Amino acid sequence: MTDGTISLPWQVIRQDDNGNRYRVGRYATRAEAQKIADSLDGRGHKQLYWVERIGQSSDSSRN
């Protein structure tokens, strides 16, 4: 981050009941991303939310 850019290496992914995946947002820390995923996951819908590091396979980072 020496060039003045902000690093957002963590993302929240949403998967709907049809298997479609979407990025919900990007975050600076895993804790921040997890807080968002937890708040969305508790809404009673069938969607699945998880946190992964940018560039990481989703299979290795699901909760």
Can you walk through the features of this model?
With 63 residues, this protein is of the alpha+beta class. It has one domain (10-56). Helix content is 19%, strand content 30%. The chain has 1 helix and 3 strands. A 3-stranded antiparallel beta sheet has the order 2-1-3, covered by helices on one side. The radius of gyration is 12 Å and the shape is elongated. The termini are far apart. The model has no long low-confidence stretch (mean pLDDT 84).
Short description:
The chain has 63 residues and is an alpha+beta fold. The chain starts with 9 loop residues before the first strand and ends in a 10-residue tail after the last strand.
List the helices and strands and how they pair.
Layout lengths: L9 E6 L5 E7 L2 H12 L6 E6 L10
Antiparallel strand pairs: 1-2, 1-3
Number of domains: 1
Beta content comes to 25-35%
- Please summarize the sheet with the most strands: 3 strands, antiparallel
Low-confidence stretches: none
Q: How many DSSP E strands?
A: 3
CA-based gyration radius: 12 Å
Average pLDDT, to the nearest integer? 84
Global morphology: elongated
SSE string, helices as H and strands as E: EEHE
Question: What tags apply to this protein structure?
Answer:
63 residues, alpha+beta, 3-stranded antiparallel beta sheet, 1 helix, 3 strands, 19% helix
